[in-house]
Give the backbone structure.
Amino acid sequence: MKTKWVLLAVWGSLLSPLPLSGGEPGSAGAVFLKLGVDGRAIGMGEAHTALTDNVNALYWNPAGIAGLRGPQLAFMHNFHFLDMRHDYLGIASPVGNGGSVGLAVNYWASGTIMGMDENALPTSEFSAWDLAVGLYYAREVSRLISVGGGLKTIIEKNEEEGGSAFAVDAGVILKPPQTGVSFGITVQNLGTNLKLVQESYPLPLTLRMGAAGKIPEVGLVLAADLSVPNDDQASLSVGAEYEIAPLFAIRAGYKSGSDLGVLSGLRAGFGFIFQKIGVDYAYAPYGELGNSHRVSLLVKL
């Protein structure tokens, strides 16, 4: 039961009030980079900085792909509100000596939008899309520490206008032996400004810190993340996963900081594994805007 009490102590400490804040809301560009991926991670309140240990780590913490035992493929489709589309593809494979490489493709499209003039009168329809493609490498430094990072290019396109930027993601995962607890820290979207037309916007730089662990006696996983972005207030994410049957789990979590109402922070989902294929679903409400449904697939090749 030692694992249980260590994990609960760490989890409780992350729930304590923290006087942290980020920058001005809406000051960053390429905000699609803040949309989380993977049904399991979203269903657990988007608390995944220290928990992820498969190809989806390319988004949450690239150190998590270190030590993979074989190639993995992940795909997610986000049935987003207002006809927006969000898709994610990740591929990772071990390359020897505890190292792994990965490729991630993150795509967002607005759907059809009605334009407005300065008098709020409709003009013509238009659409926009964003794309990020990244290459990553991670390695187990020791049984205790894994590190990883990657370089990605970001492209935004809005009708005839467009812009691009480059960014780095980097992270560390620490797993103290015989505790069942892991700790993670990652920096996302550290890079150049994105220039659109005559305006230049910083990327949504985010510092994430988290703790997670398992209580195998009861089939429970707990996780918590603190996220500090450059374009909003700091937020706290907490989540839990409970294995109600072999290879089947249910999840719930909460992400603070939303200005769309208290209920918009709720997250829930489930997942199951069949041989080398895992399927996960997550539900995320966004207040009056609508709901998001994420379905993801993980394949161990």
